[in-house]
Amino acid sequence: LTLTLAALAVVLAASITYTVRSPRFAVRSVTITGALKNADPRFLESIVRKEFRGTYFTLNLEQARTALARAPWVKSVTVRRQWPRALQVQIMEHDALARWNGHELMSTEGIVFSGATDRALPQLRGPKGSEKEVFEKYSHASQALARIPMKLTAMTLSPSFSLSAQVEGNIALEFGHEQFEARLNRLVENAAQINSRTPVSVL
Predict the structure, then answer these.
(1) Backbone φ and ψ of 42, nearest 5°
(2) Per-residue CA distances from 145 to 44, 79, 151, 199 (Å)
(3) How many angstroms separate the CA atoms of 166 and 174, rounded?
C-alpha cells in the first residue's frame, strides 16, 4: 500500500508539473489599463514582450511588475492573472510638479522620477538626499506666496544648505540657512516693497 501511494504521488506531481509548464497555458494577451498621458505605450509594450516570460502559472508577477515600474513616468504597477491565458496590468503615472536638478522630474508627492515633458515647470535643485526638504519648502512657500500673489519659478538649496528662490518677474529671493518660515512670513507681509531691480535678502 505504501509503495502504491508513493507511486501515485510521483505521477500526480509529474502531471501538475506538466500542466503548469504546458505551452497550452502560455500567456496569449496582456491588457494595460490606466490613464496614461505621458508614459510611452510602445516602450511599455517592449517591456512586456521582453520581460513577461513563462506560462499563465509560472510567470513571475513580481518580476514583471518591477520591470514595468522602472519605466519613465510610472508610479505604480499592478499585475494580475486573468483566466485562462491573459494578464491584466494597471499602471498609475506620476503627476509632475517640477524639474529636479535639470534632468529629472519631481512629482506632486515629492518623489523624483525619470521622464520627459515639454511643460514649463518650476526648477528645483539641491544636493543628493535633499529632495524631501526642498519639496516641503517649495510647497510651503508656493502656498504662502500665492496669497500676494507671487508664483515661484525656482528654488535652490546650495551644497552649504543655503536656500534661494525665484518668482515670476525675475525676482530673486535669498532665504539663507535658518528661520525659513519666519523669513517667508516677513516676505509676505512686506511684498509691496519688492520689485525686480535687485535680489531680495529675506532677513
Answers:
(1) -70, -35
(2) 40, 42, 7, 16
(3) 9
Instruction: Compute and round to an integer the Cα radius of gyration of the chain.
Output: 27
Give tens-digit pLDDT for 80-90: 998 888 889 99
DSSP, res 120: -
> What backbone phi and psi angles, to 5 degrees, belong to 135?
-60, -45
- Per-residue pLDDT of 24-57, as tens digits, reads 667 788 889 998 999 999 999 999 888 888 888 8
pLDDT at 122 over 90: yes
Q: Is the bond preceding residue 23 a cis peptide, omega within 30 degrees?
A: no
**Do residues 183 and 173 make contact, with C-beta atoms less than 8 angstroms apart?**
no
Residue of 179, 122, 117 lying closest to 151 (CA atoms): 122
Q: Give the model's confidence band at 9: pLDDT under 50 very low, under 70 low, under 90 confident, else very high.
A: very low
Closest CA to 90 of 52, 56, 44: 44
Going from the C-alpha of 195 to that of each of 49, 110, 176, 187, the distances in angstroms are 56, 30, 19, 12
d(CA 201, CA 161): 16
pLDDT at residue 193, as a whole number: 64
- Reduced to 3 states, what is the DSSP secondary structure of residue 134? helix
**Predicted structure pTM score:** 0.79
- DSSP class of 66: H
